[in-house]
Amino acid sequence: MAEIDLVKAYPAKIAQDLIEGNIDMGLVPVAIMPFLKEAHLDSKYCIGAEGDVASVCIFSEVPMEQIQKVYLDYQSRTSVQLARILLKQYWKKEVEFIKAEEGYIQNIKGNTAGIIIGDRALGARSNFPFIYDLAGAWIDHTGHQFVFATWIANKSIPPAFMEAFDKATSYGLSHLQEVIESIPASEQVYDLNKYYTQNISYQFTAEKKAGMKLFLESL
């Protein structure tokens, strides 16, 4: 789409750019919505889950009841807030939260666990004996699906643009297999076909919106 000036960054950076008005629309963590003067959710698509998402988890060397401290991944606001809610309401745990910096994963040991998201989480799955999937825990706790991120604009976007945008998104989703096949096998630390077609759910449905509403009310 020629109308788009594409900016790439990790979720929390894109979110900050949207809050500061440096960009008009972004695929951002839904937890930033209270910080926006305007929040327009006009796209039909999101990054959501109807079960375990695999890439947003608490990783630990010990079981949940022995965890005392938790590193908070600096790359995502929604995942951090979700973990806080679940630790308090679902796992009934009081822990010390540690603001993570780059390289924190190597410090996840003993009674100190950590939230890891994205590709790093998929790569870490074989390194820890205890993995707590935050999407799966949310669904078990609330009965609602979860939305990690969706396309949010900080101003009104013309309907014609959004229609073209969703059409382009739909095209990409219909060619996921080509995307998967383009990733070298040496870089595939997880079954990407399962990840992109089963773990992640893309339709921004009424059920997902209900789950998102409950999450935002819990912040």
Tally of separate helices? 8
Largest sheet: 5 strands, mixed
Helix/strand class: alpha+beta
Superfamily (CATH H level) name of the largest domain: Periplasmic binding protein-like II
Order of helices and strands: HEEEEHEEHEHEHHHEH
How many domains? The number is: 2
- Mean residue pLDDT: 95
- Specify the helix fraction band: 25-40%
Q: What is the CATH class of the largest domain?
A: Alpha Beta
CATH architecture of the largest domain: 3-Layer(aba) Sandwich
Annotation, overall tally of beta strands: 9
Shape: globular
SS strand fraction: 15-25%
Question: Could you give the distance between the termini?
Answer: 36 Å
Kindly report the spatial arrangement of strands forming the biggest sheet.
5-4-6-3-7
Please, could you describe this protein's structure?
Helix 2 (77-89) crosses helix 4. The strands form two sheets. The chain has a five-stranded mixed β-sheet with strand order 5-4-6-3-7. By secondary structure, it is an alpha+beta fold. The model has no long low-confidence stretch (mean pLDDT 95). The chain is 37% helix and 20% strand. The protein folds into two domains: 11-50 and 145-218, D-Maltodextrin-Binding Protein, domain 2; 56-142, D-Maltodextrin-Binding Protein, domain 2 (3-Layer(aba) Sandwich), CATH 3.40.190.10. Strand 4 (69-72), helix 2 (77-89) and strand 5 (96-99) form a beta-alpha-beta unit. It has helices at residues 11-20, 77-89, 118-124, 134-142, 159-173, 176-182, 192-199, 206-218, and strands spanning 25-29, 45-49, 56-60, 69-72, 96-99, 112-117, 130-133, 146-153, 201-203. It is globular, with a radius of gyration of 17 Å.
